[in-house]
Amino acid sequence: MGANYAKVLLDDSGGRAFDYGVPEGLAAVVGSRVRVPVRMRTLLGTIIALSETTEADGVRMISELVGDEPALSPGLVALAQWMADYYCCPLEAAMKTVLPNVIRKAEVGHKVRLFARLAREVSDEELAELEKKAPKQSDVISVLREAGKAIAVAELCEQCGVAHQTVQTMAKKGWLVVEPETVERDPFGKEQFVSSGKLELNEEQRTVFARVAAAIDGSVDAKKPFLLHGVTGSGKTEIYLQGIDRALELGMGAILLVPEISLTPQTVERFKSRFAATNHEVAVLHSHLSEGERHDEWHRIRSGKARIVIGARSAIFAPVEKLGIIIVDEEHENTYKQEEMPRYHGRDLAVLRGHLEKCVVVLGSATPSLESAYNAHTGKYELLQLTMRVDDQKMPFIRIVDMRLEAKKSSPIISDPLAKAITSRLEKKEQVILFLNRRGFSTTLLCNKCGYVAECPNCSVSLTFHRAQNRIVCHMCGHLAVAPTKCPDCKDPGIKYSGTGTEKVEDTVQKFFPTAVVKRMDADVMQKKESYREALGAFRAGKIDILVGTQMIAKGLHFPNVTLVGIINADMGLHLPDFRASERTFQLLTQVAGRAGRGDVSGEVVVQSYTPFHPAIQFARHHDFTGFYEQEIEWREKMVQPPFTHFVLITVRSPHEERAKLSIETLHRRLKEVLPPGVTLGEPSPAPLEKSHGNFRFHLSLRSRAVLKLSRAIRSVLDKNPLPEDVFAVVDVDAHQLM
């Protein structure tokens, strides 16, 4: 007997859920999308629970189901409910994240095009007779005969030079059949993928794969996630490919998360090539898809047509049935952390979804996050290791350049050792990557006469000069202004641009090496949908000698002809007010260095630093993750920082400084009254970035081992103490961005 009542979470209604009756014969299940009556309207909602009884009065009936199948599996509904509880956000926000807007709104449908095919066989005699009367119609039949299949009417008209009406007339006469057909909007539809086979695994890889395969087969206990710690170039991707292949053989699906959209084209190419021969379709999910593409990719996954999903963090919500394996590549990356509500972490949700759906989870990295490494050391995760590069390739030699000495005798951007190394590689027709994690030409506009600094009117940061547009830009809020030619305060024409961004590096390198082809990859020049793919394709083809870029070129890319990597300023993020600063610097240096020497020629890395003896830089120099981990984890334990506790950051912001300050002080008092034992509550303070997007910002930090109890306490305080109209509070559980 089916359930009599359904709890329906309504869309765009402040997260309210109501009980509705289930009409007899209606196949309502948890995760179904429904239309329900609300007063005089009919609204969309999602069934989040079913029951045989209700305590509500005047219960109305569900109007209709939307779609033939439930949009969400019970597992994904449970994932959304856990997110809302853990990350201290409304359930409605979590459900919106799990179910893409284009599916939720049900306003975009499948693309339908008209196709024409021959209604019957046409003899040569008939064709010759028709050619005398209507040569254009004869051409249409000839093209369709030669194709041997239906052709889109628009393409047929263009190929034969006929009007659409001509095709319709031929259909009426019985020559053709014109029918509508659903056409998939495939973001990679125009590309051809050459089939590729499995690579031979080395001994280390075979040991690791055997463990993963046994877990997928179910022949061993797969409750623990795997942490695959493999040095750069050790062949982690081949383990992923063969693990997915094993899952597919057993009739299961797979999800692969990658940290950056820029990595997706190369990853998709490799995976589509591998599975082209087996006809297993690969779906892609990321934020650069159009609404139509996202709609079609989601439905290909939901229908089971595509059983492999590749994408950024939101791909963890892909509606894959019978999941066999979830892989999180470069699991340490900050981009897996969502910076808007709900502020979830893709890696952590991958582990939870694996637990809910009883599938294998593999977290892979050359530089695991301290949280994951700690989980492996304490037995929560199972550690798998790849300590050598494939084909006996050597790890790149890393040279540290002390810029305190070099700045006196050379360019402050390109040191003498780096310049000589670039010259040597260019002479050998080898490629170079130069890394600087800062966009723009100059980072500060400064008047030496009066001390004026060009600052954003909306944020407490200086404006960055972009020479190509002759604009000064705020990288926080996007504020734009024309670059001044003299000081706005004292009118001195000697105003100077100082600091270095990727645009300036590109300009300097082009002057140093005028015959080299130099290309820049950062958010300023990679704005079009195809930009990443085109730039990486040109680099792979050897059309670019030197690639200058930000962190989008720092990881995951495999270019065998890159033999030199230069890190322009290794200290960029080292001295930020963030307990993860050292960890991020170590990870970034190791990942960037890993782009070198992935072919037959050994690689070299030149690291330019003003603090060359910092432990993060020295451990990265020796590729020593274990040494770095042991030192850093000891400091974290001493300071009671993650992974020994959960860190929660509450940010209160308002256009009015005093209101924001008063609100966070009130919130601090209320929390102090209700927080459970074992919570460390910090004092209210201005955020390191005090003003952003026109809002004044204040922070309140909390640390606790029992994070769910803490989240619920915070939620109850915020619910009972509404903030003033123009004051907003953001709760970030397991915060990664502390600015």
In terms of DSSP E residues, the strand content is 15-25%
CATH class of the largest domain, named Alpha Beta
Approximate helicity band: 25-40%
Shape field: globular
CATH homology superfamily of the largest domain: P-loop containing nucleotide triphosphate hydrolases
Radius of gyration: 29 Å
Count up the helices: 22
Structural class: alpha/beta
The CATH topology of the largest domain comes to: Rossmann fold
What distance lies between the first and last C-alpha atoms, to the nearest angstrom? 55 Å
Kindly give the count of domains.
5
Give the averaged pLDDT, no decimals. Answer: 87
Total number of strands: 31
Strand order of the largest sheet: 11-12-10-13-14-9-15
Question: Biggest sheet, open or closed, and with what strands and sense?
Answer: 7 strands, parallel
Walk me through this protein's architecture.
There is one protein chain. 33% of the residues lie in helices and 23% in strands. 44% of the residues are buried. The protein contains 22 helices and 31 strands. The model has no long low-confidence stretch (mean pLDDT 87). The chain is an alpha/beta fold and 739 residues long. Strand 23 (518-521), helix 17 and strand 24 form a beta-alpha-beta unit.
Task: Supply the key terms.
22 helices; alpha/beta; six-stranded parallel beta sheet; 33% helix; 5 domains; GIY-YIG endonuclease; Rossmann fold; seven-stranded parallel beta sheet; 739 residues
